[in-house]
Amino acid sequence: MPDRAREENLVLDPQGSASSIAEQLQGLHPADIAAALERLDGDLLRAVLAELDTETSADVLIHLDEHALEEVLAELETPEIADIATELESDDAADVVGMLEDDRRDEVLSQLEDEDRRQVEHLLQYEDESAGGIMASELVYLNRDKTVADAIELIRQAAEQVDDIHNVYVTDGTRRLVGVFPLRSLVLAHSNTRIGDIMEPDVVSVSTETDQEDVAHAFSKYDLVAMPVVDPSGVLVGRITVDDIIDVIHEEADEDISLMVGTREDELHEESSMRISRIRLPWLVIGAAGGLCSALVMRHFSLSLERVLALAFFVPVITAMGGNVGLQTSTIIVRSMHSERGLNDAVGERLFKEWRVALMNAVVLGAAIWAIVGFWLGSWQLAAVVGGSLSMVILVAATLGAVIPYALRGVGIDPAVAQGPFVTTLNDILGILVYLGMASVFLTAIS
After folding, report:
1. pLDDT in tens, 191-247
2. Bigger pLDDT: 176 or 266?
3. Phi then psi for 130, rounded to 5 degrees?
4. Cβ atoms of residues 124 and 94 within 8 Å
């Protein structure tokens, strides 16, 4: 694979001319060109794009990082953006035009041909993270009363406008989706066969309002490479292909990872230290507030700590174990939510399973700590307090880690936020409360 090896080792001279760089990029896939150009500064990147033909520039633009694309679009003239949008499929054109300010967006739309403008305007009306927001308007469909010969002729006519034709969709007289058939069926069928006789009526489709995460789940569940999109009345309006879903998966994964640690993905491209600080501070404030609450709890039990100083030795063990167990449990719960989205009848079973696992871990770790502390300090009563507290903290942390994601989803908050400082801080407070509370009960009982 010489082109792949060339791309991986490709180093562009940042001091070189735009024309020499453009020549160096000849023959590469647009995605590889985009990856190479993102290493250049904005002015040189735009100059190189200007050296490429419009079709190549359009293909490169849609593979650029969103931040780099925004910078390029800000410098391009309105006619240039209109020419690029014309070369793109409707979903990519809508993404590009949708990144513009309202006034500039209207200017670009006014310079598109009527059909292109209608398609882009239609797609822009949908939410960005919905099925309508990621679908393309280009697709091949025909009435179920047509023949195989009609379908083949339709595919030939649509080949230039529709890339990667995987299926032909079947509609009734009002364009409502009634079936689908793959190209393989078309090739094997007799030319005079009626489409309605060979179509598969059980077609998997999604509504324009369906969340993109649910669409990705459907692609994974049914092993699809393309999926039709219908409006609320069942009328066929577009299709989503697997390359769009791969982008969605990457986007959602990046978003969840950022939420887990209390940041945002756009922080990667933010240059202002003040803005980055404002993004991170809310979660850090929560962590600081949680630490102060833990300190107040420890102050409340200060007499117990003074009587048995050794109790303080094990506070880090208790808090660390509570945080780790909570994060493990919440991570599994959030993952199960994404893989079983909407299957609320499995919630109770999932929670009970996580509690059973926590119970087994609590017994094993509690017994281990009891033995270690007993032999180390020679106080089996203190060992019982530490081991028992640890077991209780593990159960509490697992319960919180399992319940909080469902509670957050119930109030419309992304459950991924449960995996960051939220669960950790709460478990620290409750862990210390349980530990020192049990210690106080123990000291009261023996005094």
Report:
1. 999 998 989 999 999 999 999 989 998 998 899 999 999 999 999 999 999 988 998
2. 176
3. -110, 170
4. yes
Please state which architecture CATH assigns to domain 2-127: Alpha Horseshoe (1.25)
What is the phi/psi pair of residue 127, to 5°? Answer: -60, 145
User: How many residues in total does the chain contain?
Assistant: 447
- 183 or 366, greater pLDDT: 366
H/E segment holding residue 274:
helix 273-300
Single pTM value for the model: 0.68
What pLDDT, in 10s, does the model give residues 114-138? 989 999 999 999 998 899 999 999 9
Is CATH 3.10.580.10 the classification given to domain 141-257? yes
- Say if residues 100 and 199 touch (Cβ distance below 8 Å): no
Reply yes or no on domain 272-446 having CATH 3.30.1310.10.
no
**Lowest mean pLDDT segment, chosen from 84-98, 223-237, 375-389, 409-423:** 409-423
Long-range contacts, 62-65 (Cβ 8 Å, 24+):
62/30, 62/88, 62/92, 62/95, 62/96, 63/30, 63/31, 63/33, 63/34, 63/35, 64/34, 64/37, 64/38, 65/38, 65/269
**Angstrom distance (rounded) from CA 311 to CA 289:** 23
Contact residues for 237 (Cβ-Cβ < 8 A; gap 6+): 122, 132, 135, 137, 208, 229, 230, 231
* Residue 12 CB partners (closer than 8 Å, separation 6+): 21, 24, 36, 37, 39, 40
